[in-house]
Design a protein that fits this description.
Elements: E1 10-16, E2 18-19, E3 31-32, H1 39-53, E4 61-69, H2 77-90, E5 92-103, H3 110-119, E6 123-129, H4 133-138, H5 145-157, E7 163-169, H6 176-189, E8 193-198, H7 206-209, H8 217-233, E9 237-238, E10 243-245, H9 252-256
Parallel strand pairs: 1-4, 2-3, 4-5, 5-6, 6-7, 7-8
Antiparallel strand pairs: 8-10, 9-10
Length: 257
């Protein structure tokens, strides 16, 4: 028997819109830092906005928090601590709630990861996209493959045991071997979760105005098929179109959507 009065689980998304450099494929609400990030003013504005929404969700428990961007890891650990403290003061968080922060390898180090963990973040999503220098340059990333690996290792050293790595395929000029090599490099690190998605060209992006070399449909399909097989063999099961996880490590925030 269906209970039509039941409400779905409640998740909270927090957007940090700044980044060091806007990627040419990005159509998100993100903006390059011109001077300094107005961290404290923005946190105050976020909490004021949350205050206005509270009457709509009185009594409900937050299952997960996802801090995305932009590049949330540009923020200081102190600002993230203030943000999460403000959220906890206004909302009921489920014990052990999943709290994810997106990080760019070019903006983090061990000390910063330590601070994020102390602030209450218990899951990271690190945007790597590729481990290959030429491909990283073509898509405008600010880090290289060594910084990507160093960021993952620093996160582990800081005590994070729930990490997602973001990877893309069908990058300009990419072939099947390069796509699967990226996945092999990622799975060798043994993250708990992998997001592996195809590059798409969206309106209002640099790539839309200046189209890059595109991988043809047949090659994209072969990449996806080969990558899916490789991930399954490495112990990652697909539970969404672009999301793969090890056993019991599905992203709770993703599942809520």
């Amino acid at each position: 028997m269906f209970n039509f009065t039941a409400t779905p689980p409640l998740a909270l998304y927090v957007h940090i819109p700044w980044c060091l450099r806007k990627c040419p494929y990005c159509d998100f609400n993100s903006h390059e830092v011109r001077d300094v990030v107005p961290e404290q003013a923005y946190i105050s504005a976020l909490l004021a906005d949350l205050e206005q929404e509270l009457p709509a969700i009185w009594g409900r428990t937050i299952e997960s928090v996802f801090i995305g961007g932009g590049t949330p890891s540009l923020m200081s650990p102190e600002s993230i601590a203030r943000l999460l403290g403000g959220i906890r003061a206004r909302l009921k968080l489920k014990p052990g709630a999943e709290i994810t922060l997106e990080a760019n390898p070019g903006t983090v180090d061990r000390m910063k990861f330590d601070g994020f963990r102390e602030a209450g973040v218990n899951r990271l999503s690190i945007g790597i996209q590729s481990f290959q220098p030429a491909l990283l340059k073509r898509i405008g990333r600010i880090h290289d493959e060594n910084e990507a690996i160093a960021a993952f290792e620093a996160a582990r050293q800081a005590g994070f045991d729930n990490i997602n790595l973001d990877l893309m395929f069908a990058l300009p000029g990419q072939d099947i071997d390069q796509a699967t090599d990226d996945l092999r490099a990622a799975t060798a690190l043994r993250p708990e979760h992998l997001s592996w998605y195809e590059l798409t060209i969206e309106p209002n992006t640099w790539f839309y105005r200046h189209p890059p070399e595109r991988v043809n449909d047949d090659t994209r399909w072969e990449m996806q098929t080969a990558g899916h097989t490789l991930l399954n063999q490495a112990g990652y099961s697909r539970y969404e179109i672009s999301a793969y996880a090890r056993v019991d490590r599905l992203c709770r925030h993703n599942l809520n959507y």
